[in-house]
Design goal:
Order of helices and strands of chain B: HHHEEH
Strand content of chain B: 5-15%
Largest sheet of chain B: 2 strands, antiparallel
Oligomer: heterodimer
Largest sheet of chain A: 4 strands, mixed
Strand order of the largest sheet of chain B: 1-2
Structural class of chain A: alpha+beta
Number of strands of chain A: 7
Number of strands of chain B: 2
Number of helices of chain A: 7
Order of helices and strands of chain A: EHEHHEEHHHEEEH
Shape of chain A: globular
Shape of chain B: elongated
Radius of gyration of chain A: 18 Å
Chain lengths: 200, 89
């Protein structure tokens, strides 16, 4: 039976300062540019933790400017948007659930089998994201939000058993589920220092 | 209907039907249009190039790879292959 209960999610999206006003006024706009190659396909990506969005901004800063930002410089150039997402529970595809993962794996495997004679496919990147995009385009997948937790390995010298860190992400496929956006300016210097520690 | 709402058996039937509606070429082109990134590395080499599948990492290595580790793996692969062929003979 479909679950029509509304679920409220708070998501954190890291972005450049110059985008904030437009997003808070006009909402997000999904960029279907082929260069927008994120792992769950086209959509707006949110973290469930504020700190992970700060981490995203630090990575984006380093990628753009090739050096580790100081607290104030990061504050000047990047910001975090805190968004309220309201979506029916049956409109969420939770890829942390084993059954959904098995289905996705089955699909990816069947496509791999169908394209077995194409070595360029076997070597290609961005497969899962392209498959998800294709399912949406063909109307086979219609969920408004995809949820997935990704495990990142942090370079720990002394705590090797604790090196796995989980980041939960939401990929919003339909911007109408975003009820509110506001800039979150609460980046505390000690939070920043805790995150930047791993980049120094 | 969203295919992820189907139970796993119906899901399989549905995706088989969906994939059967494409030829191999159509499916590949559709995925490219949806962001599949066919490595420029692949385009750099001509069709005569051959690749070795490194089973552990599931990566493909070009015979002219400049990486010593990859070359070593590649050379080990061909050495094994030669031994297998000799034994078969």
């Amino acid at each position: 039976m479909d679950d029509k209960t509304n679920k409220k999610i708070t998501g954190y999206h890291g972005t450049k300062k110059e985008n904030v006003e437009n997003i808070c006024t006009n909402n997000f706009n999904i960029n279907e540019d082929k260069n927008n190659k994120l792992f769950l396909g086209y959509g707006i990506y949110f973290f469930d933790k504020y700190d992970d969005a700060v981490d995203w901004n630090i990575k984006a800063f380093i990628k753009e400017l090739s050096y580790c930002p100081k607290y104030k410089i990061l504050q000047e150039k990047y910001s975090i948007i805190e968004s309220e997402i309201e979506v029916e529970s049956d409109q969420i595809l939770d890829l942390d659930e084993k059954e959904n993962l098995v289905k996705l794996e089955m699909l990816v495997d069947k496509i791999k089998g169908k394209l077995i004679t194409k070595p360029e496919y076997q070597r290609a990147r961005n497969k899962t994201s392209a498959i998800i995009n294709m399912l949406y385009k063909r109307g086979k997948l219609k969920k408004k939000v995809i949820v997935k937790t990704f495990i990142e390995t942090i370079d720990m010298k002394n705590l090797s058993s604790f090196k796995n860190y989980a980041r939960k992400m939401f990929c919003v496929k339909d911007v109408n589920v975003i009820a509110r956006n506001k800039e979150n300016k609460e980046l505390k210097e000690e939070v920043f220092e805790g995150i930047i520690f791993f980049y120094k | 209907m969203d295919i992820f709402d189907l139970d796993i058996k119906d899901f399989e039937v549905e995706i088989d039907k969906f994939l059967d509606s494409f030829s191999e070429e159509e499916l590949f082109n559709e995925l490219i249009n949806e962001g599949l990134e066919v490595d420029s590395y692949n385009e750099k080499y001509n069709e005569e190039a051959y690749y070795v599948e490194e089973k552990k990492q599931n990566v493909w290595i070009h015979k002219n790879s400049t990486s010593n580790k990859k070359k070593k793996t590649s050379s080990m692969f061909f050495k094994r292959e030669r031994i297998d062929l000799m034994e078969a003979a």
